[in-house]
């Protein structure tokens, strides 16, 4: 079992960047957590990470970025430990990532569900997690407001 982190370590998980709101919301959440002193790791697919790198080339809003599969392997092997995870979900793969993280970490998982199928994706979750959902595709503001209501950077 990995040693418990001495500080809060949040994992932000991005899948396929097909839906535009994901990138801006990951940058927003990462920035808020960074300002709050929370070590924040962004794990994603290669294309999702590239979008973040292009949007924040000097790392003003982000801290660490890792390959999604390597991050899951590190959690499974016990070489990485996180205190909470935020999984951006717009398809079945996102639900699988959230379930995997809940199972591996036994720590709080928040599923941030977006896109045209948000309602359907919400109904498919059958494991314990916090759900923040909105059928947002291009406009991140409704989900941003919901994130501000729960203010995970203040917990």
Automatic annotation (TrEMBL):
SUPFAM superfamilies cross-referenced by the UniProt entry: Hypothetical protein MTH777 (MT0777) (SSF75181)
Pfam name, any one: DUF1890
InterPro entries, per the entry: MTH777-like_sf, UCP006600
This protein's name: DUF1890 family protein
């Amino acid at each position: 079992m990995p040693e418990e982190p001495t500080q809060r370590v949040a994992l932000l998980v991005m899948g396929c960047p097909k839906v535009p709101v994901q990138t801006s919301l990951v940058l927003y959440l990462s920035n808020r957590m960074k300002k709050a002193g929370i070590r924040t790791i962004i794990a994603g697919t290669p294309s999702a990470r590239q979008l973040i790198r292009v949007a924040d080339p000097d790392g003003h809003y982000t801290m660490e970025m890792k390959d999604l599969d390597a991050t899951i392997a590190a959690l499974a092997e016990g070489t990485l430990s996180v205190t909470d995870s935020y999984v951006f979900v717009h398809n079945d793969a996102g639900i699988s990532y959230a379930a995997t993280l809940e199972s591996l970490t036994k720590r709080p998982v928040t599923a941030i569900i977006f896109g045209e199928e948000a309602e359907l994706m919400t109904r498919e979750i059958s494991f314990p997690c916090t759900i923040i959902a909105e059928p947002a595709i291009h406009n991140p503001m409704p989900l941003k407001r919901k994130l501000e209501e729960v203010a995970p950077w203040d917990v």
